[in-house]
Amino acid sequence: MNPMNYIYLSCILFSLGAAGVLLRRNAIVVFMCIELMLNAANLAFVTFSRMNGTLDGQIVAFFTMVVAACEVVVGLAIIVTIYRSRRSASVDDARLLRL
Amino acid sequence: MSLGTSDTLVYLIAIPLFSSAFLLLGGRALDRVGHLIGTAASASSFVVALIELNKMLGRDAESRGVTQHLFTWINVGSFQIDATLLLDQLSICFVLLITGVGTLIHIYSISYMAHDIDRRRFFAFLNLFIAAMLLLVLGNSYLNLYVGWEGVGLASYLLIGFWNQKPTYATAAKKAFVANRVGDVGLSLAVMIAFVQFGAVTFDGVAKGIEAGSASSTALNAMGAAILLAAVGKSAQFPLQAWLGDAMAGPTPVSALIHAATMVTAGVYLISRSNFVFDNAPTAQLLVVIVGAVTLLFGAVIGMAKDDIKKALAASTMSQIGYMILATGLGPAGYAFAMMHLLTHGFFKAGMFLGAGSVMHGMNDEVDMRKYGALRKVMPITFATFGLGYLAIIGIPPFAGFYSKDKIIETAFNAGGSKGIILGCVTLLGAAITAFYMTRVMLMTFFGTKRWDSAAHPHESPWLMTVPMILLSIGSITTGFIFSNGDRLKNFLAPVVDKHHHEHETELLAPIVVTGLAMFAVAIGISIALAKYSRKTIPASAPTDVTVWTKIARRDLLQDDFNETVFMRPGQSLTRVLAFLDKRVVDGAVSGVGAMTLRLAGDLRKTQTGYVRSYALLILLGTVAILAAILVVTV
Amino acid sequence: MNAPNIEYGILGPILIVLAAALIGVLIEAFVSRRYRYILQTGTAFAAVALAFLQLVLIRQTSSKAAVSSMSIDGVTIVLQGSVLIFGFLGLLLIAERGFQSFTAQAAAIPGSNEEQKALVSGLQQTEVFPLTLFAISGAMLFPAANDLLTLFVSLEVLSLPLYLMAGLSQRRRLLSQEAALKYFLLGAFSSAFFLFGSAFIYGQAGSTTFDGIRKSIVESGGSDQFLLVGLALLTVGLLFKVSAAPFHAWTPDVYQGSPTPVTAFMAAVTKVAAFGAAIRIYYFAVGGLVWSWRPILIAISIVTMAIGTVIAIAQKDIKRVLAYSAIAHSGFLLTGIIALSKDGLNATLIYLFTYGFTTIGTFAIVTLVRDSGGEVSDLNRWAGLGKRSPLVAGTFTLFLLGLAGIPLTSGFVGKFAIFTAAYKSGNISVVVAGVLASAIAAFFYIRIIVMMYFSDPVEDGTSVVIPSAMTVATIAICAVATLVMGIYPQPVISAINSLAFFAG
Amino acid sequence: MNSLTILGLLPLIGSAALFLLPKGSDLLAKQVALGVSIVVAIAGLGMAFSFNRSATGFQFVEKHQWIPAFGINYALGVDGISLLLILLALVLTPVVIAACWHEAEGGRWSVKNFFGLILILETMIVGVFAATDIFLFYVFFEAMLIPVYFLIGGYGTGEKAAAAVKFLLYSLFGGLLMLASIIGLYVISGNQLQAPTFDVTALSQLSIDPVTQRMLFLGFFIAFAIKAPLWPFHTWLPDAARAATPGTSVLLLGVLDKVGTYGMIRFCLSLFPEASKEFGPTIIVLSLISIFYGAFLAIAQGTSSGDGNIKALISYTSISHFGFITLGIFAFTEQSHSGATLYMINHGFSTAALFLIAGWMISRRKSERISDFGGLQRVTPIMAWLFFIAGMSSLALPGLSSFVSEFLVLVGTFARYPIPAIIGTIGIIFAALYILIPVQRALHGPITPGNENLTDLTLREKVSIAPVIAVIIFFGFYPQPLLDVINPAASATLSALQITGIMGGK
């Protein structure tokens, strides 16, 4: 199978993630979409690693997972706090800061 | 003509100048002696002038001119102007007239202005005028002359507006200044042309340059026209004549000195002084003649319709200067006669103005001749001196005006061809009208019935006023004969204004015929006036059932209406439009850019919706744009 | 197989800060509340000072480190030095206790009893210090990264603490939390682009190190689509961090919502770090692709200047004005990258160095103008400040003039240097745009000055609080720096000029 | 340290001393300011006497490295033109301080700050005219704006804040355009010389291609045209003049705005000779428009029935005068150049006199509207006559200083461009109008109610205006000392332009 297909897949995943970010209101879902985008990148890295015959890409993928985990920690903390004060996880409700 | 040097010329100017400054800076402390200091200064200047005349007459006819270098005034590259004075035959005539008549008028003013709280200032201004006028005639270059030229304009402005608490007087002063400024433009341009064409602006330098042929005839005609413009402004010639009548707002001695005897004749001086230009600029010369001829009639016509004695005299001045200008336009033959008429006119017109002042003095400053009448009995000296001036101005032999005017008429006829005939007729017509309106003035003022206001108690003026009048009237009797006898003045002036000894043109009419015609014209004028004003009683207010022509003449031949319609109204509109445009368009553009930026800012601000998803969309769009761009760049 | 060699000496500055951050976490966890503050601040200041000291010692270094994943060279030294200095100044503001900027308990619900209790007891959580130290270490690592992976990790190390710090404001908690949420979501979103772009670059270059990328561009001529797509996406991530348009939208909201000391810290430190990283990428890694990215950066630079300056005019909140000003400054700074020359490199570093002081000083003063409800950031209420507190207003004026780039302030030196570099490289269009933008920018800076001096004070309880020595010191240092580097910038310029080289 | 530096530092030290004075010591502050400015003026005049009038090039030169990394030097030096402009500033500063003794008292800030700002401004002015390094010039050019901004906004009247902002923004905008051009020059100098430089003499040796030259020229020119101000960049001036105190206006119009015309001579002409020649005719047209435009708008203020503002009127006359100056500069003849330079000096003095006296009139009458005056010649004769003399100088009456310069400009222009010169000459008619109309309305006529009890000038006021009037009269009769200083510099500028052909005269 042509490794390029994985790249196409990763592009599709990335686009799906991006679309999700734009379309979903729930902060958690938005955040999950971002995770999806990161994983699309991971897929690309791994694929390119395979294509290039170097291991760097795979290492990056591991690091990304770790970083994504950190992001989850921080992100959930923020989302939970804001949910506790507002009783809403909709990103559209948070628009006191504007103009 | 070789020029000597003299180191005393500067005193002519310096004495009145410092006196003026002293009087102005001295303040109220000098109020009690100011008039004496001023008169003394003028008299001292006159004495210096007499000494200079004496010295000059002692020199050979060809080297009578003297110069005095004072200091370098302006020196930039090839533009070098020295403050140098030049006294030659032409200027000495003026110097004597200015200081002589000037001193008499100073004396007259001591009494005339005795009750004015600002008499000291009045004398300071008179002295300033004397100094400026002397600088005008003594400067050796056009630019030095220009300083004096504007200086007399300033003095004239200050003196016309001497009683400027009265708004119309202040306006009159302003009008005079502005009209003069129009003329000044001409003089400025003349200087520029001279500098560019000849690299020099001294009279001598320009004359030599012309002789060397370094200027095209176009340039010379342009320079001549520019000089004429200057003369027209200063000498109240058509079309810049409108200010002179209003200038009568000034105290009467001012009218006598500045607006009759001296300043207004500066144009004649300028043209005569620039004879080398006009002799080589036929077109400009023709313009001079036309201006002179038109003004001559213009002034005369206005003179016929005026009931204000000073304005009638002013109109007459305008007309008489028209004669002089016309004469200067006739080339070398005319300069001397123009000068002669200028000098005689200086005497008789100054005398008449002082006479008018004397009448006003006795009549509570009433100027309307319709309120006069039969004054000859109560003011005999004034009547006598005014009468002598009258005889002189209408050209009755052997009074001064006869000699000078007759010569001009004669020269006009001799100008050649149809031009000669037209000019001759114009001058004759002018003489007739002059006779008419001056007779009218005489009749309305001194003869007929009393039409005085009940408050008026006319009386003869004190001796300080009558003596100058008497002296001037002596001048109006004698000067004509003295100057013309044996062509004395003409020969005296010849080295300056007629260097090349042009041959006279053939005479169209014999001199005696011209004289006869002139006498006839005068006689007609007098008789019409007698017929019209001596028998009937004169109404105390001007009749209103007059022809439209009379109405026009009364309105100064619509000169003010013309200026108002053609210059002032459009000017005012333009000013308003510009003020509006400045606010709305020029500044509006600036604030418009500001307002536009503000509006743009307001609009762009709305992109900051506060929705995090719209920000994300912005990021995505930006990404797409960058991707597209980078791929486009690649392809 | 040998273990890879780690150059602890030249990595020292980063390691010190990182270690201190970890210690800070431990302190927060184990030390009694009463001593936390003093220990935390002590650790933080000591760490930053020590790191700076170490940095001075290794200033001549120019080599790759940690298996080529980092590059400790002159450029890094300058940038890390800047980060440390601005970090230190930021810490001074954060440590200010004369007035409360930070919530006592971030986890507490706004207005809850818990929060009230924490507030009353005066016992404040001090997790902000280790967070700051983490951010500083990330900011030091970011411009030193010589590898896409390191770059990504350091980006996150820098960003994650900032997301949290943005939400720590004591007053107006909702705003602060919203700022944190927005910053976080958008930051994560853009880092996804960044990572995805990295993947494509790696895919083409076959290596994640900058040296490898550089080499591959030289060899391939750089016309490969993957590389370009990767570069485009990477650019998005970077431009987000420097808040260039159209990726700027988070900036005003986050700047406004965050506690002002954090805003000050982030405005200076993030800008230095992000531009530092950008310099290394555009100058070193993908310098060979200049034909592809320069036109794009020119366009973005011009748009950024325009957006920043124009929208700032319509702002009514001082912190938002300053946020847009920061955006405009990013536009100016991009011209230094566009120049792609030694001059451009020098100019960018000088600009960053001078800008940091001025911007920290500006925000420091914003923290001082308060009423009973906390900071007053409504511009209209700054009216008449010149009358009430001439010294504060005067200093603020100095900072604003510095931001506007008026001669004899450091801002002018930076602006001059950077425009000169851009002009020299032939990119006159950005210079002209920059000049015009500066003119527009002058308008809103001057408007604030007018407000302070020429409007009459409104009596609404707005006043300037007397700060502790820490804030005073910050403001003083920034003011002196703004002025001195404006009048006599030569030492700084020559130091930067002589240091600013990449390790080959 | 060299004399120019000392000259520039003295007022700065003075202002520092003022700021250190305790609150409330207003009188002391005034005395210190006056004392300092007089000392500086004397020092400056003393320096002028050791100026070598026959030499060309800069004198009192000093040069220190400032920012060697950018090739920037602290380089000062004066030629005839800059020397006279500095002297103008040095003489006018004590005059303004003495004349505007009470001016600051209604201001937003303390009196000492007002005089402190004026002294700072004096330092900036010395710097801007003495700088021979373009970067240094630019620094002063921009830094100068700040004290003026505070002087207008802090001590002015009416819409002062708006006027101050407009002034500052407009000037900054021009300055930034100039900055772009300066950067361009610097880069080109780096390409053509061994090292990039800002030295004005070295930069004038560059050969710049025509297109670039045009762009760079415009950058400089617009900045200077705004400063001067030339139509259509003038609209900030009337607002500023209306809002500023008379003393500030004197310094603003009398001295600061000369930086614009000075810059045209020093930078536009010598750095971009080709572009200057190319744009010359266009600028001459703009100058002519300025002459008439300024005159007409001044007349509009004068004739306006209600709200004619005397300060605005004077500022519009200045626009007209600046038209003459730029006309002279871009006519490229020796006469026009010397005339334009002399005009800068003379305009400084005559406008100073007009503004100061108008200021006294306003402070007494508590109104700026021309229609509120009237009959002042009766009530306050000395003030009225001094205003008249200043007005006469403004309309370039021969015998007063402005005449010489105006005439030189016109005669010089005529040598190269006869038609514009003729048009310009017609401008003198309108000059008469815009002076005589306010003279008539304010000084003549019956005493307007409310004016009966105005007091005439005090001794302090008389003494402070005396030097200005003396200068106006003296240099009207004897301008040659000034011309001797100007001529070498003017012809040096022209020879740098390599203008051939008419130099006036054949």
Automatic annotation (TrEMBL), chain A:
<keyword id="KW-0472">Membrane</keyword>
<keyword id="KW-1133">Transmembrane helix</keyword>
<keyword id="KW-0813">Transport</keyword>
<protein>
    <submittedName>
        <fullName>Unannotated protein</fullName>
    </submittedName>
</protein>
<keyword id="KW-0520">NAD</keyword>
<feature type="transmembrane region" description="Helical">
    <location>
        <begin position="6"/>
        <end position="23"/>
    </location>
</feature>
<dbReference type="Pfam" id="PF00420">
    <property type="entry name" value="Oxidored_q2"/>
</dbReference>
<dbReference type="GO" id="GO:0030964">
    <property type="term" value="C:NADH dehydrogenase complex"/>
</dbReference>
<comment type="similarity">
    <text>Belongs to the complex I subunit 4L family.</text>
</comment>
<dbReference type="GO" id="GO:0042773">
    <property type="term" value="P:ATP synthesis coupled electron transport"/>
</dbReference>
<feature type="transmembrane region" description="Helical">
    <location>
        <begin position="60"/>
        <end position="83"/>
    </location>
</feature>
<dbReference type="GO" id="GO:0016651">
    <property type="term" value="F:oxidoreductase activity, acting on NAD(P)H"/>
</dbReference>
<keyword id="KW-0812">Transmembrane</keyword>
<dbReference type="InterPro" id="IPR039428">
    <property type="entry name" value="NUOK/Mnh_C1-like"/>
</dbReference>
<dbReference type="InterPro" id="IPR001133">
    <property type="entry name" value="NADH_UbQ_OxRdtase_chain4L/K"/>
</dbReference>
<keyword id="KW-1278">Translocase</keyword>
<feature type="transmembrane region" description="Helical">
    <location>
        <begin position="28"/>
        <end position="48"/>
    </location>
</feature>
